[in-house]
Design brief:
The chain has helices at about 15-25, 45, 50-60, 65-75, 80-90, 145, 165-175, 195-205, 300-315, 345-350, 365-370, 395-400, 400-410, 415, 430-445; strands at about 5-10, 30-35, 95, 100-105, 105-110, 115-120, 125-130, 140, 155-160, 180-185, 210-215, 220-225, 225-230, 235-240, 240-245, 250, 285-290, 330, 335-340, 355-360, 375-380, 385-395. The protein is built from 15 helices and 22 strands. The protein folds into 3 domains: about 5-130 and about 250-315, FAD/NAD(P)-binding domain (3-Layer(bba) Sandwich), CATH 3.50.50.60; about 135-245, 3-Layer(bba) Sandwich (FAD/NAD(P)-binding domain); about 335-440, FAD/NAD-linked reductase, C-terminal dimerisation domain (Enolase-like, domain 1, 2-Layer Sandwich). The protein has about 450 residues and is an alpha/beta fold. It starts with a strand and ends with a helix. The radius of gyration is 23 Å and the shape is globular. Strands 1, 2, 3, 4, 5, 6 and 17 form a 7-stranded mixed β-sheet that branches.
Length: about 450
């Protein structure tokens, strides 16, 4: 005989976004259940910034791999499953173990038991995208999730993909002595960002000994006497002990019964949401989504932003998501930071774009630190007189570029930004010169 349960809100998926939604709603007095069949806390803390940044910090301190792994596991220990469950339970959330499947509006089945709900929040996250390469399934291969939770240090590693995660992990393993090769079909790294960011990062990786194979696609992968051999379409080959698949992630939408609500999602696409993080207006009432499953939030901080939007709306405080200033960060050395529109996106959107840049080597801080190559670029809308995007590659760029994210989000006029004074000597000074440049070209006067 099946059991029947009802909750004000059922959160389907216990990752970063789901845990935040469930906890906040429960603390506000809502009756909430969170359904998760895997880790409460999700995998995102492991494949994203926390463990990789920990390992890179250990490398800078000259620690051994064994000590670095121990430190990584220590700093991510509070994110584990037991801690996640205990924290949610303390907030009043009912954590239900099992596979949740929607059976119709207001109805959910969990391992044979029927549950009902007033509102459903889908936070099922994402999963690694595995490219269709002949033989890949038959060789020792890691996903990013596995690479940042296991203690192994391969002598030779081939990384499939030169995006943010591939670059971070390539630098981690190279820093501890692995011979790393990145195989990237495009002509450079970080192809969705401003070109200079990928160029600076490529230079940094090469100086660490990383072999970059641009314009190369894997044709097949096979075991060989010395480990794993990756054959490329151009006839080249890469021998390694392990393959790391870093070809991106895809929203996890299949198998949850969302089609019973009339929600149809094409393969590889995210769950469509409006600016309130609700399913579109023509979809079912009372269904919300946040995090990777939407295809919009591809970072932990973006997922948590969407989660807070959902919470506000469910508590009767209308709030709309605004994605103009969500930071995109690659936690390498140097850090790559981007926010807002890229130059290509701005031009494609019909914006009359003004661009200005500045090399970090010209700052007093760079002279003090004997810094590596770095640069910042700012992008402004000529008609509106405000910033619409920015990118930087440099030490701790994620720290000193935050004011640009605020400027983009608030629409702060360039004339006001040029009047902001930065401490000397800091890397934050690097944004002053391009701001003055943009303001002068915008107004036609000296600022």
């Amino acid at each position: 005989m099946t059991q029947r349960r009802h909750h004000d809100v059922v959160v389907l998926g216990g990752g970063s976004a789901g845990g935040l939604v469930a906890g906040e709603l429960a603390r506000a007095g809502r009756d909430v259940a969170l359904v998760e069949n895997r880790l409460v806390g999700g995998e995102s803390p492991y494949f994203a910034c926390v463990p990789s940044k920990s390992l890179l910090a250990s490398a800078r301190r000259g620690e051994t791999w064994e000590l670095a792994v121990a430190r990584r596991d220590e700093v991510t220990g509070h994110l584990d499953d037991d801690a996640g469950v205990a924290g949610l339970a303390a907030d009043g959330v009912r954590v239900v173990r099992g596979w949740g499947q929607v059976t119709g509006p207001g109805r959910l089945e969990i391992d044979g038991a029927e549950w009902t709900y007033g509102d459903l929040v889908v936070t099922t996250g994402s999963e690694p995208a595995i490219p269709d390469v002949d033989g890949l399934a038959d060789v020792p291969a890691w996903t990013p999730d596995e690479a940042l939770t296991l203690p192994d240090l391969p002598r030779r590693l081939v990384v499939l993909g030169g995006g943010p995660v591939g670059c971070e992990l390539a630098q981690v393993y190279a820093a501890f002595g692995s011979h790393v090769t990145i195989v990237e079909p495009a002509g450079g790294l970080l192809i969705h960002e401003a070109p200079f960011t990928g160029e600076i990062l490529a230079d940094a990786l090469r100086r660490m000994g990383v072999d970059l194979r641009f314009g190369a696609r894997p044709a097949r992968i096979e075991r060989c006497e010395t480990g794993v051999r990756t054959w490329l379409l151009d006839g080249g080959r890469v021998d390694a002990d392990r393959v790391l698949v870093a070809a991106g992630r895809r929203p996890r939408v299949a198998g949850f019964g969302l089609e019973t609500l009339g929600i149809e999602v094409p393969p590889g696409h995210g769950l469509p949401v409006d600016d309130a993080c609700r399913v579109p207006a023509d979809g079912p009432a009372g269904v919300w989504a946040a995090g990777d499953v939407t295809g919009v939030a591809r970072t932990a901080h973006a997922a948590r932003y969407q989660a807070r939007v959902v919470v506000a709306n469910l508590l009767g405080r209308p709030r709309a998501a605004d994605y103009r200033a969500i930071p995109r960060v690659v936690y390498t050395v140097p850090t790559v930071y981007a926010v807002g529109l890229t130059p290509n996106e701005a031009r494609a959107g019909g914006i009359d774009l003004l661009c200005a840049g500045y090399d970090l080597a010209a700052t007093a801080r760079a002279v003090v630190d004997d810094n590596e190559r770095g640069r910042v670029e700012l992008y402004a809308d000529r008609a509106a007189g405000v910033l619409v995007g920015a990118a930087a590659a440099g030490p701790d760029a994620e720290e000193w570029m935050s004011e640009i994210a605020l400027a983009i989000r608030s629409g702060t006029p360039l004339s006001l930004l040029t009047d902001v004074v930065h401490a000397f000597p800091t890397y934050g000074e690097a944004i002053e010169a391009p701001l003055r440049d943009l303001a002068e070209r915008l107004e036609g006067t000296h600022v």
